[in-house]
Amino acid sequence: MLFDTMTEAIGHTPLVRLRLGADRDVEVYAKLELQNPFAMKDRVARHIVQEARRLGVLQPGAPVIESSSGTMALGVALVGRSLGHPVHIVTDPRIDPVTLAKLRALGCEVHIVQAMTSHGWQSARLERLEELMRDLPGAFWPQQYANPDNPGAYRTLAAELLADLGPFDTLVGAVGSGGSLCGSARALKESLPGLRVVGVDCVGSALFGQPDVPQRLQSGLGNSLLPKNLDRPLVDEVHWLNDHEAFAASWDLAREQQIFAGNTSGSVYRVLGGLAAEAAPGTRIVGIFPDRGDRYADTVYSEEHWAGHRLEELPVNPAPEAVAPGETALAWSRMPLQRPQELRRHLLFVESNTTGTGMLALGLARELDTVPVLLTNDPARYAGLQETGCEVIVCDTNSQPELRRTVQERFRREELAGVTTTSDFYVPAVASLARWLGLPGNPEEAVARCRDKAGLRRTLHRAGVRQPRFEVVTEAAGVAAAVTRIGLPCVVKPVDDSGSTNVLLCADEPTATAQAERILAITTNVRGMPTARAVLVEEYLDAPEYSVEMFTWDGGTECVGITAKSVTGAPHFVEHRHLFPADLPAPVAQEITETVRSALDAAGIRLGATHTEVRLTAEGAAVIEINPRLAGGMIPELIRLASGVRLLEQQLRVALGLPPRLKPDHHGHAGIQFLLAPQDGVLAAVEGTEQAAAVEGVETVTVTAAPGRPVHRPRSAADRLGHVIARHDSGQDVTRALDTARDRLRIVTD
After folding, report:
1. Within 13 Å, how many C-alpha atoms sit on residue 280's CB side?
2. Helix (H, G, I), strand (E, B) or coil at 99
3. pTM for this one?
4. Handedness of CA 92, 98, 101, 104 (dihedral sign)
5. Mind listing the pLDDT tens digit for each residue in 290-300?
6. Phi and psi for 455 in degrees, rounded to 5?
7. Starting at the edge strand that comes first in sequence, how are the strands of the sheet with 321-322 ordered?
């Protein structure tokens, strides 16, 4: 295999079958991460540094600083120097001479602290690191114990295992930062949901409820604190070995399998042997072997070191002894793990829509045994937020680095159950966070494709999905040619906005050009995000409009229902009435559903709710746009009233990795009538609300606009002033109730 740089050579490590269990038809494999250029942490260093560069957190040529005396230092040195960064390693006198020589040979500046501080060598190193961060502007610190890019690095390891071996039953790995085992297991469980995960720890480590013994001699696993990247609910069982057992196992690994490795690999080897001895024939077990034995020549492989620490006096168990929670492990022991009772799982919401469903979703999160958390740059935007009782974290939600920093500082990984949003604008941010954290979500490229209406048009065109003819222009001068190709009337709209904002039906080329100029002049949207500065000029399909609510889960896509929509007259397209379910013949509904399913497949949507708008032309359904999120405009509430299916709950369930519950418990009809100002002015009052609420079938009458607000004839969804919701057994009765209630309401303007 040919690589252009050493960074590219990271990974692609061998998978070797061990002789353990062969006589019982049990397959045991060692993933030799020790065959990376330096060791397993090379993967972590590469992923963290490359992600920091991609996000702009690490600028070209800026320093990289790490506190480490082991393989993470070597990985950072390898990757940082390969990519042209000065690398500073902070360590202490305990660093082994082989590692120190390698770091200096690679061109690193090594800072060796000379004295312990308040919390020993670790605090002394961190204090020196903080000094360097102050002294070196733009310096980047990988923070391997807290940065989710550490476990995220092991997606490549998981992919290699699946490619080389295919399905297997058990994964075994040592636990230190939590990155390798948790990251590999999380990625593997996407393909192998029944995978059994076994963690290997050392006696005297506090990771899984044992008392901390700082004098333990093993390195590369164990910890005195809970690292933020450790996700204990992922681990089904944990084994502990004392120093004697771990060191002896390393010798056995070399003698029996000819693998010269560190004590982490030795410990994993011992546990693999125990599991193989009890496994059923046909079982496949994989262990991760992190690093070579070179660094341990003066410790694990030194008889003088053994004697100096009286290791032979420690007890040895020939097989793991079962321990219960609260019992102390002194020699090889095992315990099944369950979710810690004190662990609170949080569901993150990145912003919300402002139409009501967002606040409802925050309340529903509690029903699913999670703590709702809203990440927002402006809490005042949301009416009713305080009443939800959710945790609110204020941060720059328009910045992916800031979102990541906020989440990383506030939460341990095991405290996070899911991430979602009810806002169009933040679906890409959620997809990125979900991928970063290893939580359920859609592919980033799929949601980005849907949010970019021009990109979606091109994708659907390649897939042969029916849609309007279109042209994309980035300068107003290009509109005339686009209009000539598309024809008149045409629709001119931004490629990346929402809620019918700046969508205009144009009857002539000057109007189209003027509308394009208005759109291109907008540099930020209503949420303060930079706009794409591009315009769609597309064919106007004068046909009935519908939206199709779909849920994608576990490789399939199910249609929840189709909503009939009424829009205001030209030149604007503001939806003023929704009726669910749409009154359509079954073959027509099926044709619409299949068109949308093809569009979702082409776009790459893999999980959760989608809200697709279509027009039903004489040639069949044509896709107008795909929204990779739950419908807004209270459509979820209409579906709940008509069928009992709570779409908001289902969105939260899939964000938590739970299957949606889409089977209706009754069949009825529901509709919504939005309140719109008949003329420009200032809202004085909305009269007749009590009379409208008294109409048979009306569920709610809601006024969202306060007196004194400037209003005008509708140009977008933001111009709605409130709504009436009705339900009944028949669609005709719903329409009658909405008409009657609308007629009893009077919008008074000054």
Report:
1. 2
2. helix
3. 0.91
4. negative
5. 999 998 999 99
6. -60, -40
7. 15-17, 27-32, 284-289, 170-174, 196-202, 237-241, 333-336, 321-322
